[in-house]
Design brief:
- This protein is of the alpha+beta class and about 280 residues long.
- The chain is built from 3 helices and 12 strands.
- Strands 5-12-3-4-10-8-9-7-6-11 form a 10-stranded antiparallel β-sheet. It has a two-stranded antiparallel sheet with strand order 1-2.
C-alpha cells in the first residue's frame, strides 16, 4: 500500500511538472510571437562615407493562437482624451480595446480580381485607399472581412517612424503592437529589392516573417526602402497630406519610432468594390 501511495504521489508530481512546463512554453511562445517588421532604411550617402540606418517597424500579434471564443478581457482601455496637436485633428482617447473578436482561420476568399476602395475615417480626416484585389486577393479579402466585422473601428494607429523609415502603422485593436485577428495568411505582391521599393502612398502588411500576416498594416508617407518582405495591397489616393502633418508633429517621446505625438484613431473603416 505504501509503495502504491508513493507511486501515485510521484505520478502526480510528474503531471504537475509537465503541466507547468506546458504553461511556461505557451508563455514563451506568446512573448516570442511579437510581429516585428524589421526595416533597414536606404543607404544614406554622406561626404565622409555611407551610413546605414536600421529600424524595427512592426510588432504584431501575441494573440495569434488564441481561440476565437476566449479573448483575455471584455474591457476597453480608456484614457483621458488627448488634445490635438495638428490642425484638422480632433481629440482622441482611443488607446485600444481588449475585447476585439478573434477568428480561428483566414476567412474564405470572396473578393474577385478587381479593385476595391477603402475609407479610413480618422479623427484627423478621411484617408482613402485603392486596394488591389488582382495582385493581393488574400490580403484584400482579409482586410475587407475585418472591416466588415468592425475589427478596426475605434482603434489607434500605434506606431509612427520618422527617421530613415517613414510609416504610420495601424490595425492592432489593442493599441500595443501585439494584437491581431487570431489567424495568419501568406505573403502576396512582394516588391523587388531596391531603393524606394515602398514608395510614398504604399499600403502594406506588417509581419514577423514569411506567412505571418494578420491585421496590422502600414501607410507609407515618404519613399522608404525595406527588405522586400511585406505584402503591398493598396495605394493611398487621398489623405497623404494628413499623414505628412501627423509625421511632422513627430513621435510622442521625441524619438524616431513610437506612438505619434498626434494620436490617430481609426473611427471607422469601410471597403467597397470600385465602380467601373
Amino acid at each position: 500500500m505504501a509503495a502504491s501511495n508513493k507511486r501515485e504521489r510521484q505520478l502526480a508530481r510528474e503531471r504537475y511538472v509537465r503541466q507547468q512546463a506546458r504553461r511556461a512554453e505557451a508563455r514563451k511562445r506568446r512573448r516570442q510571437r511579437t510581429q516585428v517588421l524589421a526595416a533597414v532604411a536606404a543607404v544614406v550617402a554622406v561626404i565622409a562615407g555611407v551610413a546605414v540606418i536600421s529600424l524595427l517597424v512592426n510588432n504584431d500579434d501575441d494573440t495569434l493562437d488564441a481561440p476565437a471564443a476566449a479573448p483575455e478581457s471584455t474591457a476597453s482601455v480608456e484614457s483621458t482624451p488627448a488634445a490635438p496637436v495638428v490642425d484638422g485633428c480632433t481629440a482622441s482617447s482611443a488607446t485600444g480595446r481588449l475585447n476585439a473578436p478573434q477568428f480561428d482561420e483566414e476567412p474564405a476568399l470572396t473578393v474577385d480580381k478587381a479593385s476595391y476602395t477603402a475609407t479610413l475615417d480618422t479623427n484627423c480626416g478621411p484617408i482613402e485607399l485603392t486596394l488591389d484585389g488582382a495582385k493581393a486577393p488574400h490580403t484584400v479579402n482579409s482586410f475587407a472581412f475585418l472591416a466588415e466585422e468592425k475589427f478596426f473601428d475605434g482603434t489607434p494607429c500605434h506606431r509612427l517612424t520618422t527617421s530613415g523609415l517613414y510609416v504610420l502603422q495601424c490595425g492592432d485593436p489593442t493599441g500595443t503592437g501585439t494584437g491581431g485577428p487570431g489567424y495568419q495568411f501568406e505573403d502576396e505582391n512582394l516588391p523587388e529589392e531596391g531603393a524606394a521599393n515602398y514608395p510614398a502612398g504604399t499600403v502594406a502588411m506588417a509581419n514577423s516573417g514569411a506567412g505571418t500576416n494578420g491585421s496590422q498594416f502600414f501607410l507609407v508617407y515618404e519613399d522608404t526602402q525595406l527588405p522586400p518582405n511585406y505584402s503591398i495591397f493598396g495605394k493611398i489616393t487621398k489623405g497623404l497630406d494628413i499623414l505628412k502633418k501627423v509625421a511632422a508633429a513627430g513621435v510622442a517621446d521625441g524619438g524616431g519610432d513610437g506612438a505619434p505625438s498626434q494620436p490617430v484613431t481609426l473611427d471607422t473603416v469601410t471597403v467597397a468594390k470600385a465602380r467601373g
